[in-house]
Amino acid sequence: MKKYILQSIRLTAVLMVLLCVIYPLIVAFAGGFAEGNGGGEKLTKNGKVVGYALLGQSFTKPEYFWGRPSAVGYNAAGSAGSNKGPSNPDYLQQVSDRIDTLLKYNPTIKKADIPADMVTASGSGLDPNISEQGAIIQIRRVAAARNLDEKTVVELVVKNTQGPLWGMFGPTSVNVLKLNLALDELKK
Question: Distance between CA 52 and CA 177 in Å, rounded?
């Protein structure tokens, strides 16, 4: 029995060093080679940091593209989903209200044209991207609010659309903050 206890203690010590010291150091070292040196890609406007490319933000003005809803108010410290199931009446009302808001501000679209990501929050509540369809349904509203030609806004959406990772993993998406910053640059 003493033999097994000593083996367990040794195994625990080795795993603690491996998983609590060596692995975090490797991840931190690898993060140093990532964009922003592991601190994330900071996006700036007029020399000021306005956000990070991997964190969603709230946009509610008609002249901006709107992002995915957040169950936590885009608070990175409290990242989480709503944990409400599809049969929860409060959740269904919340989704219905989001659909109504989208239809109100985008009167040229049909309810069937609204992708799910525009009315449901992500698991983290911080998703910075929307689907390509989510951007497309907002083009007319944004173009009209900014007095821009729709073709110009379409070109901007296409330019800011990211394909699947390595061409095969995940959907095409649009980073809302990058797209809205590019819209603001058009005015200059």
Answer: 8
